[in-house]
Amino acid sequence: MSLSLSSLEKIPVCYASVSVGCKAEDTLPKKLEAIAAAGFQAIELAMPDLLAFASLHLRHEVEPYDFDDLCTAAKVVKSMCDAKNLKILILQPFSNFEGWEEGSEQRIDAFTRARGWIEIMKACGTDMLQVGSSDTPAEKIGTDRNRFVSDLRELADMLAKDNFRLAYENWCWSTHAPDWKDVWDIVQKVNRPNIGLCLDTFQSAGGEWADPTTPSGMLENKPKEQVESDWKRSCEELSMTVPKDKIFFLQISDAYKPKQPFSKEVDESGTRPRGRWSHDFRPLPYEGYLPVVDFARAVLKTGFRGWFSYEIFDGGPEGKGKEHDMVSFTKNAMECQKRLLGDCAHS
Fold it and tell me: Residue 347's pLDDT band (boundaries 50, 70, 90)?
């Protein structure tokens, strides 16, 4: 299936609030100014930004479970976004939700968080919650996919009461659903109209093609030629099997190849290697080494023409932090979007 550039020109573009700003003075209002100035039409509202803004606005420390305060702040964020013609596409990232044992404190907590986040969604005016596939160790949540499906179905039904949607994303360091095929299987089994996929160039290429723990930066458990052919086959399978209306949005980022391979062990916080890589080594496309165009093109070949959203965590090639001017940074992302669509159409 060929893609014409003219068919891609009206794709709406979003930017994650957490993906711009590197200093304490880079507050959410300033981030929104930079995102709007670059021509983006929406934001992903990240909970860390909402927490920081709520504490600043209300002049006291607001905690993750202070849902009333967070709702108060979310209403102000909505007003700021409305004034800049920015839609709030999603609230993110809702994590470590599915799989906890029935009656456990962790499961009670997961659903308490869900109810609180739904209230925040109402306050900020978004209709979509992004849920990442859990990276809780398997010894705590098991490997029974039926349990994950059941929890996500219950969450989808909770969201449906307000006509809200659930965008389920594979995190490539997840303990139970690291690949797009995993989350697509789960979404099909949940079998609710308001659950779909959040696909991500980093999460798929970073899991199926790349590996931050190897000298080459690629999977080394099979020959390079097979890694490449398996990757191409996976992209083609996605384009042939996933209906366009089950893709709720596509997140865009690249990755730096680590100068020294990461340890294969979890770190002191329990984070797996690809999780550490994700947190600080994700620049704009063309600044890393992942086959971003392959995956974006596969998504477009489904017929999807929905939101492209830039979720960047650029700590520089060393992952130690990288200062930037926010307006220049977001404008670079918009230029990157134009180049990416051009390459998708012409590759």
Answer: low
Identify the CA nearest to 97 among candidates 126, 120, 130. Answer: 130
- Helix or strand or coil: residue 197? strand
Question: What's the pLDDT tens digit per position in 163-197?
Answer: 999 999 999 999 999 999 999 999 999 999 999 99
Rounded distance, CA 257 to CA 249, Å?
A: 26
What's the pLDDT at 320?
84
DSSP H/E element including 333: helix 326-346
Q: Is 14 helix (H, G, I), strand (E, B) or coil?
A: strand
Note the helical H segments in 11-135: 28-37, 47-58, 67-83, 105-124
- Whole-angstrom CA distances from 68 to 54, 56, 65, 269 are 10, 15, 9, 30
For 305, counting Cβ atoms within 10 Å of its Cβ (0-12 exposed, 13-18 middle, 19+ buried), the class is: middle
Q: Which letter, b or e, does each residue of 216-248 get, where b requires 16 or more Cβ atoms within 10 Å of its Cβ?
A: ebbbeeeeeeebeeebeebbeebbeebeeeebb
Spatial contact of 81 and 31, defined as CB atoms under 8 Å apart: no
Task: Summarize pLDDT for 195-219 with one digit per residue, the tens.
Answer: 999 999 999 999 999 999 999 999 9
User: How far is Cα of residue 283 from the mean position of the Cα atoms in its chain?
Assistant: 14
Partners of 247 in beta bridges: 197
Q: Which residue type, as a one-letter code, is found at position 13? A: V
Tell me how far apart the terminal alpha carbons of the chain are, to the nearest angstrom: 11
Helix ranges restricted to H, 174-223:
180-190, 201-208
Alpha-carbon span 151 to 159, nearest angstrom: 12
Contact 57, 31 (CB under 8 A): no
3 by Cβ neighbours in 10 Å (0-12 / 13-18 / 19+) ranks as middle
Would you call 290 helix, strand, or coil by DSSP? coil
